[in-house]
Amino acid sequence: MNKQSASPKVTHLLSNWRWTERSEPVTDLVIAEQQEGADSQLVCGKPSPKARRSTLWECRKKGLEPVTLEMEKHLRIMSATRDVPKLVNVMREHQTDVINCHMPNAHMLGALANRMTGGKHLLVRTSYNANGPDDKWRSRFLLKNATDGLVVISEHARQQAVERFKFPASRIAVIEPGIDLERFNTSMDREQARARFGFGPDDFVIGMASRIQPRRRLDLLLNAAAELRKQIPNLKLFLVGHGDANNVVHAPAERLGISDLLVMPGYIEGDDLVAAYRAMDLLYFPVGGTDQSCRTLREVLACGCPVIGGNVGFIPELVKEGFNGLLVDLDVDQTRDSILALYRNPELRQRMARQAGEDAEKRFRLRHQARQNLALYQRLHAYKALPQPRKRVSKRALALLGFYAYLALSELELF
Questions:
Q1: Which helix or strand (DSSP H or E) is residue 122 part of?
Q2: How many CB atoms lie within 10 A of CB 342?
Q3: Looking at residue 162, what is its pLDDT?
Q4: Which of its termini does the chain have fewer beta carbons within 10 Å around, N or C?
Q5: Residue 192 dihedral angles phi and psi, to the nearest 5°
Q6: Which of 204, 194, 127, 195 is nearest to 158 (CA)?
């Protein structure tokens, strides 16, 4: 830690200017660490003047003023050569102790900046993927040669990091991402939430909240609904999100004769999103999207909604069979039977809904996530204070770094 202060000084790096599935969790973590006494700051990408929504503006709404650099999502040699010296200056002014990198290119930029300052900062990589960091050479090189600690979202991801990267298990922390439980909870009146979207008290509302595209497997729900409409006469399909609705939803629904079941409000946010979750009798979530940590699932569960989830990826980490939902294979028959089972057993649904909300209160508190991160930083500082063996860089890694240096010089037209 910084010798002049007992509180850690943490610089979080987010290599993107867009308000994406990664931006809000990182922003919330920075704020939560500040509330726990840390001097944490966020460095993110600078939006274009015409940007309609950006990390910068959304951070300001939450009361956080980030530092903006180029911070490209993907590696751009010239952008990196401009960003790294600026990042060094930002960290010097802040007197940073810890660099926490939340995306692959942020990891690279953080490692380069740390190297320019003599490697005196702790470098932590936070991975939100179900299987841990990606298996590309850049991740392998940085984890082996430039990373002090690793944060992953599940025990499976921790095991993968140990097996695939030989990263020391003692320097890996399994920390579930938190959510804003002041916003996502069971306090909103359910009947008022249903009325907001035109649902009656007797309607059975199955929700999906995702981008509307083939890979999210809406076809499973549509085909199951076609078989269920006679058994569930008050069935409604509440599809929240935007995308290719004509091809993915409307055309197959018309072919199946279930167009009248559809309620599609499009993309919604804020209180409307909370109301949408509260209006659902259950959420159907067969597969995750680009956010492998499945933030939508955590938000829905916190709102007291049981889930029928696909038995794939990170979903089984969140949906516990018979406790807050059911797990199914990506199969129409299993989807149909699970929906029918919950429809016919309202007491089970109510118990799952209550347990979902109570479990979320225990698991998804941002304060808990922040405290676990701060504990990891402290543990890594103690580890780094010990005598360390000298790391040797492989010839292959040196060759790859030389190739990237050649690309950089090519962009400068020195060849």
A1: strand 122-126
A2: 20
A3: 94
A4: C
A5: -65, -40
A6: 127
